[in-house]
Write a structure and sequence with these properties.
By secondary structure, this protein is of the alpha/beta class. The protein contains 16 helices and 13 strands. The radius of gyration is 22 Å and the shape is globular.
């Protein structure tokens, strides 16, 4: 069968670059199509093209490979546009983290909520909307898949300000069927060595997860009629008892934080390394000690080192210093191309996708931008019925959504009053004076990469 044309804008992505090549060549549904790689850095682009061409030759895949530093040269007639770019990611996340911390706001990831999430959206959304303009002109039937954080905010931006473009947003968490398999193995329903989720086991399992990306909660976990949330609480508590503090902020004491959040909300935070950053309880406010401890700041220098080290491996595949056979044998797929494969091939698989609620969560509006389990085909994602979000989680979800929506409107209007309102609405900003100082200092520090309209 004819495969789709997939254009990747940001081909050198730390997380996405190599997996999309691997999946494209290994999928019987995708490999007969075209993979167009776009990166504004010519050296990065050439490395990724070299990997793709060498892998095509080694596998004998009939995949067509193309590429350009100018996306408009390769976008025409694309079936899918995957967005995975970011400008000086670690650098600006470090700027966001440091300035916010100076004014009493701690971020352990600094890319989705808090001032870091707000300002990353200000940096990324203008370019995403320019991509949407190009899609409208060159490939108006293409599905645009946002894989850039803050994915929900940027997905809202496309939904609100490019409503004629077919789009949804993704994260690499809650990736099915791996997600369900992980939970079943974790609570002992399946042995740890189980490699795949069978249809029979899946049919006996009901997992309900909902929320805003990076702030999603598992509210129901039933297998073969047995409620497994209590068992999950036991497993998480045992893991917390054995957990040692990690030096890095995101993985540090996550099971401890998960226990606290489970006991508070009665549900498991599926992205706890992020969700602990979404609530005020671990910021260090108040008189009583924060349990297990206040979160610590994202280490941008460490992330930059990790990215540089990972790029050495990527560059070695591109140059031939590492054999392409190793890339083929050790590679893996990714969430976006798994979804594209199912859409294009009509495989009927379900995935967690960020898009409009459409009534699935009955106590949130239809246009609430939620991460939900969805059926998906070439007509787009459709959520499975969820029911009501529990109180507490509902309030946090609405506050996060309000922050994201205000951030989008500030980003497109360049209105500082709206920007301040977004920061003040954010769940971890607790002082209006500090919000004003953070806003002014970040606008100045990131002047190089923010639209000139902010300074007029």
């Amino acid at each position: 069968m004819r495969g789709p044309k997939i254009t990747v804008v940001g081909a050198g992505s730390y997380f996405f670059g190599k997996p999309v090549i691997w999946n494209m060549l290994h999928s019987e549904v995708l490999r007969g199509g075209e993979l167009a790689l776009v990166d504004t850095d010519p050296a990065v682009l050439e490395t990724m093209l070299s990997i793709a061409r060498r892998a095509v030759e080694a596998t004998g895949a009939p995949t067509k490979i193309s590429g350009s530093t100018d996306r408009t040269e390769v976008m025409k007639d694309s079936d899918f546009i995957v967005l995975s770019f970011s400008f000086r990611n670690a650098h600006y996340r470090g700027v966001d983290t440091d300035i916010a911390a100076k004014h009493g706001v701690t971020m352990c990831s600094s890319d989705t909520i808090g001032p870091g999430g707000v300002f990353r959206a200000l940096r990324e959304l203008p370019e995403i909307l320019r991509v949407a303009d190009d899609v409208r002109r060159l490939c108006p039937e293409a599905w645009v898949i946002n894989f850039i954080n803050p994915t929900a905010t940027l997905g809202i931006g496309l939904m609100r300000h490019a409503p004629d473009i077919k789009s949804f947003a993704l994260c690499d968490g809650n990736h099915e069927p791996h997600n369900t398999l992980h939970f079943l193995k974790w609570v002992g329903v399946l042995p740890q060595e189980t490699a795949a989720l069978t249809a029979d086991v899946a049919a006996k399992t009901e997992i309900r997860i909902a929320g805003v990306n990076h702030c999603t909660f598992l509210t129901k976990f039933v297998h073969d009629g047995r409620d497994l949330l209590p068992k999950l609480r036991e497993v998480v508590a045992k893991a917390a008892a054995e957990e040692q503090p990690h030096a890095k902020a995101k993985p540090r004491l996550n099971m401890h934080y998960a226990v606290e959040l489970m006991d508070l909300y009665g549900a498991y935070p599926t992205a706890v390394s992020h969700t602990k950053e979404y609530v005020p309880f671990f910021q260090g406010y108040g008189v009583a000690p924060n349990r297990p401890e206040p979160i610590i700041c994202f280490d941008a220098a460490n992330r930059a080192e990790e990215m540089a080290e990972a790029w050495k491996t990527t560059a070695a595949y591109g140059s031939g210093d590492l054999p392409i056979s190793q890339f083929i044998s050790e590679g893996r797929g990714d969430h976006a191309t798994d979804i594209i494969e199912s859409m294009w091939g009509g495989l009927g698989k379900q995935f967690y996708i960020n898009a409009a609620n459409q009534g699935a969560v009955t106590n949130l509006p239809p246009d609430a931008f939620l991460e939900l389990r969805r059926d998906v085909d070439m007509s787009g994602p459709r959520p499975l019925p969820f029911g009501e979000l529990p109180r507490g989680i509902l309030g946090l979800t609405q506050q996060v959504l309000d922050t994201h929506e205000l951030t989008v409107e500030a980003a497109v209007s360049h209105d500082k009053k709206l920007l301040l309102r977004a920061l003040a609405t954010d769940p971890i900003v607790n002082n209006l004076g500090d919000a004003k100082l953070i806003m002014d200092e970040l606008l100045e520090a990131e002047r190089e990469h923010l639209p000139a309209a902010w300074y007029e």
